[in-house]
Amino acid sequence: MIVELALKSERKMARELIEASGLAFEDNVDVMYGMYENEQLVATGSRAGNILKMLALAPDHQGGSVLGELVTELVMSGQRAGHESLFVYTKPEFIFSFQSLNFTLLASQEKVALLEYGKGLSKWLESKKDLVRPGLNGAVVVNCNPFTNGHLYLIESAARRVDNLYIFVVKEDRSVFPFDVRYRLVEEGVRHIPNVIQLDTSRYIVSGATFPTYFLKKDDPVARIQMELDVTLFASKIAPFFGITRRFVGTEPNCPLTGGYNLAMQRILPAHGIELEIIERKQAETGVISASKVRELVGKGDFAGLADYVPPTTRAFLESDEAQAIRERLQNDFRNKALSGC
Question: What is the model's pTM?
C-alpha cells in the first residue's frame, strides 16, 4: 500500500533511501509518498507542482510493479491538484521505464531526459495550428522584463530576414514584470511589424525554477544541461510544427548565462536543420540596452533616462498607475542595494 509521508520520521526514512540510491534529497515538495514492506520503506517518490521527483526504490524492488504503482499515485495527486500534464526529469537509462508507464519523451541529453505524462505538448501545438504559415520562418524567444528598444531592434532585424517571425514570450512568472504585462508590452511594441506572430511558450521552456538537480553529481554543469534540454525541446518538437528554420538571438557581452545559452544553440540547432543568426546588440549612448538597465533606471526614479532604452509603449506603462507596485518594488530594491553597498 502506498501512503503519504508527512511525519518527520517518515521523511527521514525517505531521505535515507533517496541518498542510498545516489540521489540528493530536496525538501521543497507538495507531497511525498512511500511504500512499506515489513515496516521498512522500500520505495518513495515526490511531486512539486507538476514535476515528479526523487523516485527511489530499494534494490530488491526494482524492475517490478512498484515503480508503476508509485508513479500512478503521484500522477493522480497531480491531476487532483489541477495539473493537466506531469513531467519527470530522469537519467537517460530510465527513459524506457517511464515510456512503459505512458510518459512521452520530450528531450534528452547525455545526463538528463525530460518526459511528460499527458498530451499537453500535442494539445498546445494543436491549439496553435491556425498560426502555422508557409514560407521562410524564423523565431525569437524572449522574456522581456520589460520590453526594451533592444528587444525591438532584434525583432525588427529578424523580421526583415524571414517571411514570418514567431515571437515566443516566456510564460513562466519569475520576473518583476508579470507575464500578462510582459506579453502585452511586446504586443504593443511590435504592432507596426506586419509579419510577426506572437505566442507564449506554455510549459515548454525548461525552467530554472522546476529543473531538479537531485540526481546530478556536484560537479555536473547544471546550467549547461538545462540549456541543452531547452534548446533540444525547441528544435525537435516546437520548431518543426511551425516550420521554423532560423532562430535569432542578440550578442551577449554582459551575461555569461545568456552567452552560454547562445553557445548551446550553436551546438544543437544545426543538427535539427535550424540556422542560428546572431544579431549585434543595439546600444544607447551609455552602453548596451538591457532590461536590467531599464529596471535600474526605474529603481532610481530616472524616467527621463528611459527614452533611449524603451519604446513609447513601455515607457507609458512604466509611468502609469498600473505600474505603481512594480515601481515601488524596483525602488525598494535599489534603496536596499545602495544601503548594503552592492
Answer: 0.88
